[in-house]
Amino acid sequence: MTVCDNTVVLVTGTSRGIGRTLVETFLLRPKHTVIASVRDTAADYVKELEALSKADGSRLQLVKIESSNSGDPAAAIKDLTDIDHIDVVVANAGGAGEKGVIPLDVVSPEIMTDVFTVNALGPLALYQAVKPLLEKSHAPNAIHSANKDFIAFAVHPGLVQTESGNKSARAMGLPQAPDSQRRSVDSILGLIDNATRETTSGKFFNVIDGTEIPW
């Protein structure tokens, strides 16, 4: 079996949380090649990712992408010498900064710039890097992309029970985030699996309640 036979999925930000759960779930689907980006390929969590269960014909390939480094996505794609196409891209990497939720009256311009770089410019650099391989897919799906041949949409995953999600929830006075990782990931995958240009592309969805968010 070659990679040409597989559905090829790229997920960024996979060391923990939603990204890791997405990788776990995709690997349990037969004939899937899952490209998982991490910030440090020598970190302890890499061994845990490599040990994840895999369905028949599925495999994991790790690449280094630090979303604050605009050159990382292109370098990562260049290293994927055996990948001839990508079918699905999930630009999951992101964050609210090291200090989390900060009131507007005290947040610094530097922190705002860092958050913008990771959450806005990071997906832009990723899209520019993966576009040639997406164009070789028979059914390209991308979250955070724009092309007349692509199905592209944005999602709000919910306030999810991850380390950062629970931290944000506590800042709002909640004991923990209300939405489980499993519920969020299953809803995201449901959108990806059933996406069409007519009903999904160009839209922004709250995956927890299934509603479209005006933007």
Describe the secondary-structure layout.
Elements: E1 7-11, H1 17-27, E2 32-38, H2 44-50, E3 59-64, H3 72-79, E4 88-90, H4 109-134, E5 141-143, E6 151-156, H5 163-171, H6 181-194, E7 204-206
Helix pairs in contact: 1-6, 3-4
What does this structure look like?
This protein has 215 residues and is α/β, with parallel strands linked by helices. The chain contains 6 helices and 7 strands, in the order βαβαβαβαββααβ. A 7-stranded parallel beta sheet has the order 3-2-1-4-5-6-7, sandwiched between helices. α4 links the parallel β4 (88-90) and β5. The longest helix has 26 residues, at 109-134. 36% of the residues are buried.
Quickly list its features.
alpha/beta, seven-stranded parallel beta sheet, single chain
Largest sheet: 7 strands, parallel
End-to-end separation: 43 Å
What would you report as the Rg, rounded to the nearest angstrom?
Answer: 17 Å
Structural class: alpha/beta
Helix content: 25-40%
Instruction: Give the helix tally.
Output: 6
- Tell me the series of helices and strands, N- to C-terminal: EHEHEHEHEEHHE
Number of DSSP strand runs: 7
- Determine the strand fraction and express it as a percent band: 15-25%
Structural shape: globular
Mean pLDDT across all residues, rounded? 91
Strand order of the largest sheet: 3-2-1-4-5-6-7
Low-confidence residue ranges: none
